[in-house]
C-alpha cells in the first residue's frame, strides 16, 4: 500500500465497498472531534497507541484504495512513526495485518478543521470476502509517546453507531489491562470517517 | 458576581484549547475536541439527559424556497448536534441576571419573503424555550428584530430533529443585504439555558465562521463583552446550523 495525503481525492469512479464520507457542500467528515492516539506504548495523558475502524463488505470485492480522515491533531506532538494497515478480524478486534504501510507524515487541516485525508493505494488490490469483518488500523506502536495522531468522526450518520476500537497500551489507564477495547459510537460521534474503495468480485481471501 | 457567571459557564462548558475528553473515568478512549484559546466555550448536552437519536424529517419544507440553508443532505446527520454554544437566560442561575444570546449572519441572494426559520437548538436546563428572531443588520451586528418567535419543547437529543418556527405573513428580505438569525431569551424564557448546534458544511469547516454574542448583565465583563452589547466573534472554527425558507 502506498500512502499519500490528499484534500480532494476524486473517489467517484470507485466502487464503495464501505463509505461513510459526506459529499459537498458537506464537509467530508466532522473535523471537530478526533480520537487520539500516541506512539510507543501511550502515555499518562493519551493511553492508546492504536485505533481501528471496522467494516464488513457486502460481497466479495477487491480493495484498491483506503481513505481515512486521519490528521495531525496539532497538539504540539510529533507526526512520525505511524502505520496504516488493513487487518483481518480476530474475534471482534483487529487481527493479522493483510497490508501495512508507514505514514510519511500526517495530513494537516490547519487553519480549518477539515477535509484532508490519508489515502492508501493498493496497486494489486486486496481481496475481501463478503460478510467478513475487517479493520482499518492506525498504529503508533513503532513510534514514540511524543508522536500523536487523530482520526476524525464521520458526518453522515449520527443515528446509527459504527464499530471502532482502540488499543489501550498504558497499563495503569487500561481498566482491564492493555489490549483492544471496542466502542459502538461515543458521546462525541458515532464513529470514525473512512472509505474502502475498489472493484467487484475477485478471489476472496 | 462575575465569578458566579464564570462558574456557571464552566458548568456548561466542555473544553479549552487543547483539552481532552474521556467518555468517563474508566474508558480508555481519548477524544480531542478542537478549539482555540480565547474562543467562547463549547457546550454539550449532559450525558444523563440525552434523548433518543432521530433522523431529520424535512417533509414540511416541501413547496418552500430555500433562501439560505447550511443543513446537510443527510437526514441522519444534517448538522453536528453534539457540540454548540450556549444561550443563557438572565434567571437561569448564571449570576446577577446576566444573559447571553447568539446571532448568525446571512445574506439572501435575491428578494424573498421569509416564512419559516429552522434551527437545531437543544434544551439544556431551566425553562424549555427560547426566542428565535430575524434581525436586520446595524453596522455589522444585529440591529432591530424584524420578527420574533417563541420556540418551546426543545429536544435534549444531540441529533437530528430540526426545530421550526413559521410566520404566514412572512418577513421581507432584500437580496444582497445582511440579516441575522438570533436565538435568545425573553421574560418568558428567562430561566432557560439552551444550546445552538453547529453546521457541518465544508466551507465553514475549512474557512471558519463569524457570528455574534450579545451579553447583558454584570457578568459580561468576565467573558470580555461590554454590558448590553453585541460582540462579533471572527475566525471561529465553528458556525451555527440554520435555514431560512419562504417564497
Structure characteristics:
heterodimer; A: 205 residues; mainly beta; 6-stranded antiparallel β-sheet; 5-stranded antiparallel β-sheet; 14 strands; 0% helix; B: mainly beta; 4-stranded antiparallel β-sheet; 15 strands; 43% strand
Q: What does this entry show, briefly?
A:
Chain A is mostly beta strands.
How is this structure best described in words?
The complex is a heterodimer of chains A (about 200) and B (about 250). Chain A has about 200 residues and is mainly β. Chain A contains no helices and 14 strands. The two termini of chain A are about 15 Å apart. The radius of gyration of chain B is 17 Å and the shape is globular. The interface of A and B includes residues 31, 34, 109, 115 and 187 of A. Strand 3 (about 30-40) of chain A pairs antiparallel with strand 2 of chain B.
